[in-house]
Predict the structure of glutamate formimidoyltransferase.
Amino acid sequence: MVPFCEIEGPMAIAVEAARAFGYWAGAELDLPVFFYDEADPEQRSLPVLRAQAFSSRAPDAGPNQPNPRLGAVAVGARRPLIAVNFFLASGDVTAAQEMAHILRERDGGLPGVRALGFNLADRGCAQVSLNLTDLERTGLEQAAEAVERAAATANCSIGEMELIGLMPESEFARLSEEFVTRHRLSNNDTIEGRKRV
């Protein structure tokens, strides 16, 4: 997966870059390329692409069969998202999956939220993993509060939150001081903050 994110400037620049890269990868690397989100003229999401690739949907560039060594690639243009994991205090994967079901948009949960529940045998706990794809509708703190409520519904508790990658500075600015302190977040956890370092 290769996402081109609109951070500053119009989305059209990210779309143009994604498509140029995709056509290059298809031609030069002999790699089937599927466009998603804004790079796809039909704006299909990554989960939809994964379900349709090679079955009901042909590649947008490159060959029609997976490359024997490299497979295929999804290339998208999108706004920044936040990937965040919540570790349960127990290894109850059923609870994690139940929580993910409550939280994810496609099941009637929070707008712009994709969620999965996993067992992490090496850590002896279960995890709820979220992608927040529309920060204007569901931000990090709002999602974390919903995770806490879902944990209470599933009779479990959250041990720790882990931010994967960076968040936009605009999202960091929306977080309460208490939330930032509790989860040990700083401006270094933002895209713009890292660019300034």
